[in-house]
User: Fold this.
Amino acid sequence: MDKGSPRPVPGRLRAAWVALLATALAVLVAGCVTVPTSGHVQAVNVTQGNAGGGQYYLQPIPVAPGGNWTPEEIVSGFLAANASFANDHAVARQYLVPAASKNWHPGLAVTVFSQISSTPVPLPDGASGSHQTRTTTIVQVSGTVLGSLSNSGQYSTSSHSQGTTEEKFVLVQQGGRWRISSLPNEVLLSQSDFEHVYQPRNIYFFDPSEQTLVPDPIYVPEAATPTDLVEQLVRVVMASPTGWLRSAVQTAFPAGTTLLNVSLDGGTAVVNLGGAANGASDDALHQMSAQLLWTLAGSSADEPAIQSVELEINGGPWNAGQDNPVQQISDFSSYVPTGPAHASFYYTDSHGAVRSLSGSAQANAPQGAPVAGAAGAADIPLTQVAVSPDGRYVAGLGSAGLYTGTLTSKSTLSLRVDGNFGSLSWDLHDDVWAVQNGQVWLIPGRGGASLPVTTMLPAGEKVTALKVAPDGVRCAMLVSGASGTQLLLAAIVHSGEQAYIGPAVPISADNVNFTSLTWYDADDVVALRDPSGHPVLDEVAINGGNVTAFPAPPGITSITAYGPANPLVAGLSDGQMTTLATPNGLWSGNVAAGRSPAYPG
Assistant:
């Protein structure tokens, strides 16, 4: 597992398995300090909806401060109580003096440590070597930072993962008991605590065309009951997007919509809306239902397991023009692009012609068929190729630069931009995204001027590869800098004919030095690295969570994927290609001769 992983959930590519929840939170504070008995998990029986039976939900039960606890015990007890978000950290606030409690507003932001230790430190104005006076003391908390969770719920791996950080807590005596008077305005959690009190979810918003749903991968704190968690998710999807996606996506819920009630009836979430939703059109209500279904039912592995949604307006069911008001996610499947099974991938042969081959081809399969038009005739030899998701357009790299054309019998290839380029990627709008010496270019597939794209990266960092997600809004980038090559996630924002890439969030640790990447599905990227001559493929969760490594074939130079219904395809240095259906199996052996295989996109 990668050092920056906050949640060790197995990768989607691995065989499925169910992890059992631990029955108690791990010890939060290491070292000589004895941690007060706080933050244990208790199984609480709850009832899920009208038809739902009793269900056990594991909840952290924090412990209030003891009467004669030392300053170190007060700080460690406070940190343990941080794991409970109930009533705005009500128990944790008992460790604070009233003024500090009033000013402590951490929100959902969290700093995640691999291990935390507490030690007393000298007072700034005390005698030499003095750690405390009769009424005042300072306790320093230090640990290795793995990452942080923003208020919008996006987890980012830490750029300080090789070092430690220190936070100081000032304590005073009140009525003979130590309480915290000054503290960081954030929640500090150990990795094990974070894993137990947060769960990953996708919140779905619409792209600017309102035709495609874009997942915003976030972490949310566990609620007291399944209904509480569903209500929390509904409120997030109703609000305007925040975080790194805010300028690129939108919600279908009109401003002024109010949430009247949420209830669970078995596996159906009943969501009752009022306010501005009362005057919404059927099209808007259809989109709102799509957002709700994909947000609540799109992650079936998480609890609570929602299979359907019933949308109500002021208590009356909206039936979407159907007899049954209960809607299934299958009714809205077209909103989320997925790769079809048995898809073909594209590659170039030894003559520079573009060919296609089924991803289900076995070892020593017949050579693939040439594509239609100039790209398949090798009139202009190409060394790298990409085909648009709709299969209409092709882009390739030749000796003079980047070419585009259509995949029709009488098509030609047009030189669009001179020079050497790295990765190629198409989006849903039939635009090509390419990288040239750190500069990102946008090349309209239908014709028009090629545009340089601004990226909001720190000085000294440059993009070496970029792949657009199936939704056409998000992009994954390999960015090189002083600390190595890092995997970043960002949103594409269009403004008229121009476009820019917004602020990026890291989803891998520093110094990884990836060389190639591909989107596996909407939630995962597969990236190639070659430490010490032994290539490894990493499946990286977009929510900043687990990184699952699996062996790569010797000589691998590139990788492409098209969802779980299709095998991975690797290009090898000897001009051959090989496939892998699952990392639990074996690479197929050479399926054909060719370079730079690429599924559509």
Notes: Residues 29-197 form one domain.
